[in-house]
Write a structure and sequence with these properties.
Structural class: alpha+beta
Radius of gyration: 29 Å
CATH architecture of the largest domain: 2-Layer Sandwich
Helix content: 25-40%
Number of helices: 16
Shape: globular
Number of strands: 33
Number of domains: 3
Length: about 575
RNA sequence: CGGGGCGUAGCUCAGCCUGGUGAGAGCGCACGGUUCGGGACCGUGAGGUCGGUGGUUCAAAUCCACUCGCCCCGACCA
């Protein structure tokens, strides 16, 4: 490709509203442009990268027996009503009506449609297992699109679905996908982590996320260096030290705490208590049921765990006025002692604790000497706590650190969640109808591209892993006005093309500095420079973007050498 | 949805607080010239409904109201 004929609109200055590195660099490299909030156009350079990623994905999916489909993005509402997700997805789903008034939605994911195909067509265990996938656009009306291409409302996802007769089959399918994912991300040159995850709105039993560690990510991952435990904090558990409580009072005692509203206030208040001796009381509505949630004062609620523990579909914190009406006090003075009218969920960390301090349900008063199990009618104990940096690993004696991660892939063991709700059954060997056991597996294509940028860039621009780079080689004659340089460049260009090497030929009539800056910015792994001095000696210069290592080679042997370097670079991507 | 911020040339921004000078700068773009291995220099030029609507005023980019859009921080997910 000749640069002079290409559309590669690089920009010098970083656009003001780009915060994360991948957003800034993809914009500056002339790869993406924003159309509206959460909607991006992919320009030719970006599309080349995405196609390479998709090719790698296809190869690995096909390798494990995957069969590629292409399903509609527009779905009838009935399908989603059958699975129950028409309600669950709420505002995140784009909904519309056709001219006859029928309800439709834009697909957020494709469990429903694939299951609908499966239930019509799969009848016998003899047809199993099946591994189906597609690479297709998904629509999600995100409450807050952000970080460039990382969180958007329309994106390309590779989604795969497996159908098996039984759980052993699903385990195998899941394992295959897991390994395929590892190969995909390895080949894309990403350094990633596999973490235990919550399955959220997808439902199902077990799930794992593929994460790239970067501050641009939105997830928090708890890691143990000692044993390798890694979990999304939505799911993570931890070991915390037992606290030995002194004997308390025979009965809780109310005391005035004027102005005390927070855990911190009460710590500082004379006669108060350290955070780990306080009971934090939160009021939530769980599907319209007012509920009290109890945690240790220094612990934070994990809403994902709350949803999983209760099965609630919609949760929200209660408003101050609602709390006042229910308990007789405003937040800051509420507690669960003596409360019988509402369910009370308590975190395991409060079990057996005595001599605690909590709100008295009277503004500006607290209770001391509270023995949790004696004084509070807990309806359910659960793990509700968000793990924190520095707590103990749940699997070994190590310590957890918490780091930010970007989710690039997620695999789920769905089980029979969809096959049962949507009636996808096959006959087994005994002639008995059994629900298909399903798995679902997703990769965000744009995120893979952005993650590569987040992980691999420098002050000058992007450094693409050669496996997904838009071009393998960029050829830059330093001065197009020099006939000798131009002739040499044209010849090498023709040779590279003939050798099937992906080359971007910077034939623009620009100064060398401009070309070098642009080459660095768009991140082509191998730069071949043709300049006056070296050319006079019959040589060209080869520079590697990542290491900046430079070597001069004879013009005649350049092609061979470049081929060799491409092989080396490719090997290095896989080795990293 | 709650909180914060921003909309002036293709891009980055100044001007606004304290209304009134011919709406500006740098970069980019076009043309001419000199340059030519790390975003060159000189000259000339094109380019704007100051996000939109309404209002206040003799006078609005500037003040007020409404509205649209975008970004960032918190609850969702590839």
């Amino acid at each position: 490709m000749r640069w002079s004929k290409s559309f590669i609109p690089t920009v010098r200055e970083t656009p003001a509203d780009a915060e994360v590195v991948s957003h800034q660099l993809l914009l500056r490299a002339g790869m993406i442009r924003q159309l509206a909030s959460g909607l991006y156009s992919f320009l030719p350079l970006a599309w080349r990268v995405m196609q390479k990623i998709m090719t790698i994905i296809r190869e690995e999916m096909n390798r494990i027996g995957g069969q590629e489909f292409h399903l509609p993005a527009l779905h009838p509402a009935e399908l989603w009503k059958e699975s129950g997700r028409w309600e669950i997805m709420g505002e995140n789903m784009f909904r519309l009506r056709d001219r006859r008034g029928s309800e439709l939605c834009l697909g957020m994911t494709h469990e429903e449609v694939f299951t609908a195909i499966a239930r019509h067509e799969l009848r016998s265990y003899k047809q199993l297992p099946q591994v189906w996938y597609q690479i297709q656009t998904k629509f999600r009306d995100e409450p807050r699109p952000r970080s460039g291409v990382l969180r958007v409302r329309e994106f390309i996802m590779k989604d795969a679905y497996t159908f098996d007769l039984d759980w052993e089959g699903l385990d195998r399918a899941y394992r295959n996908q897991y390994e395929a994912y590892c190969r995909i991300f390895d080949r894309c040159g990403l350094k990633y982590l596999v973490v235990h995850a919550s399955s959220g709105a997808m439902g199902g039993q077990e799930s794992a996320e593929f994460m790239v560690l970067t501050d641009a990510g939105e997830d928090h991952i708890a890691l143990c260096e000692a044993c390798g435990y890694a979990a999304n904090t939505e799911k993570a558990t931890s070991r915390i030290l037992d606290i030995a409580d002194a004997d308390g009072l025979p009965v809780p005692e109310m005391f005035p705490t004027p102005g005390v509203r927070t855990i911190k206030d009460l710590e500082d208040f004379p006669g108060g208590a350290p955070a780990d001796r306080q009971i934090k009381t939160l009021a939530y509505f769980l599907d319209d049921q007012f509920t009290l949630l109890l945690l240790r004062g220094d612990h934070e609620l994990n809403e994902t765990k709350l949803v999983e523990a209760t099965g609630a579909m919609h949760i929200r914190p209660a408003h101050p006025e609602e709390i006042k009406a229910a308990l007789g006090a405003y937040p800051g003075s509420i507690g669960a002692v003596g409360v019988t009218a509402y369910p009370i969920l308590a975190d395991f960390a409060l079990r057996g604790r005595r001599n605690m301090v909590t709100g008295a349900n009277r503004d500006d008063f607290h209770l001391r000497g509270v023995d949790v199990e004696r004084d509070i009618r807990v309806t359910k104990w659960a793990d509700l706590r968000l793990v924190k940096m520095g707590e103990g690993c749940p699997q070994c004696e190590g310590t957890l650190t918490v780091r930010k991660g970007l989710e690039i892939g997620h695999i789920f063991k769905l089980g029979t969640r969809y096959s049962e709700s949507m009636g996808a059954y096959v006959l087994n060997q005994e002639g008995k109808a059994v629900p298909l056991v399903m798995g679902s597996y997703g990769i965000g294509v744009e995120r893979v591209m952005a993650a590569a940028v987040e992980l691999s860039h420098d002050a000058e621009g992007i450094i693409w892993p050669i496996t997904i780079a838009p071009f393998q080689v960029i050829l830059v004659p330093v001065n197009m006005a020099d006939a000798a340089q131009r002739a040499a460049a044209e010849r090498l260009y023709t040779d590279l093309l003939a050798a099937n090497i992906e080359v971007l030929y910077d034939d623009r009539d620009e100064r060398a500095g401009v070309k070098f800056k642009d080459a660095d910015l768009i991140g082509i792994p191998i730069r071949v420079t043709i300049g006056p001095q070296k050319l006079a000696r019959g040589q060209v210069e080869i520079l590697r973007r990542r290491t900046r290592a430079v070597e001069d080679v004879a013009l005649e042997t350049a092609l061979t050498r470049i081929r060799k370097i491409i092989e080396e670079e490719t090997r290095e991507v896989l080795a990293r």
